[in-house]
Specification:
This protein is an alpha+beta fold. Helix content is about 45%, strand content about 10%. It folds into two domains: about 70 residues, no CATH class; about 80 residues, no CATH class. It is built from eight helices and three strands. A three-stranded antiparallel sheet has the order 1-2-3. A hairpin with a 5-residue loop joins strand 1 and strand 2. Helix 5 packs across helix 6. The chain is globular and about 65 Å long.
Length: about 200
């Protein structure tokens, strides 16, 4: 296992397979900018290595390979990294909630939901987020077509029904998650901000 800095300033976690001194395989588990996510990726890598060792019928020895990788002097160039593990984990939760059934298997809608959870952003920037996750993103037109399908097929009510079916009706919690518009408490209007009190019907800042 090795941790490598990427061009964006993140840290990538990889599992490297060698035959002698020659690298014969590199498995990218993902990259992150936070210590918490890095700890998850490191533990995932360790578990993957343990599985490989068990499958090979070998004995696991703690010989400080992580420390050795950290001080390795050979230069490493990361051409591309992605967080496929994170995407697959969220896809599993999405399927478990029966959202796939509720949306008639709409994969584009699923990918948009997962991208919005990971990094709330604009529709156009979602293309970049999905690409970094290792997922083939839809086109900008494809995203708008998907949103049209969601409105026509009433995904909102169908997803709500799926949530109630999964959780039950005894204890329900409503969470409002809005990333569409930001309001700033300003006294004078400018080109970017409008005072809330002069914009009736809008939520408080």
């Amino acid at each position: 296992m090795r941790k490598v800095p990427t061009g964006s300033g993140a840290t990538a976690v990889q599992i490297v397979t060698k035959q002698g001194r020659q690298v014969i395989g590199v498995e990218h588990l993902g990259s992150t900018h936070t210590d918490a996510d890095l700890a998850v990726l490191v533990e995932t890598a360790r578990e993957r290595i343990r599985e490989h060792i068990r499958e090979a019928g070998q004995v696991e020895w703690d010989i400080g390979l992580e420390d050795a990788a950290a001080v390795a002097s050979s230069p490493v160039v990361v051409k591309r990294s992605y967080s496929r593990v994170l995407f697959e984990a969220l896809t599993g939760v999405y399927d478990r909630l029966e959202f796939t059934t509720a949306t008639n298997g709409d994969a584009v809608f699923r990918d948009l939901v997962i991208a919005r959870i990971i990094e709330p952003s604009s529709k156009l920037d979602t293309i970049r987020i999905l690409d970094e996750l290792g997922v083939k993103p839809p086109s900008h037109t494809g995203i708008h077509r998907c949103l049209g399908r969601a409105a026509e097929a009433d995904y909102r009510d169908r997803l709500s029904e799926a949530c109630v079916t999964f959780r039950g009706v005894e204890q329900l919690t409503l969470v409002l998650y809005d990333v569409t518009t930001l309001f700033f408490p300003v006294e004078q209007e400018d080109d970017y901000r409008i005072p809330v009190e002069n914009n009736p019907g809008q939520p408080d800042p």
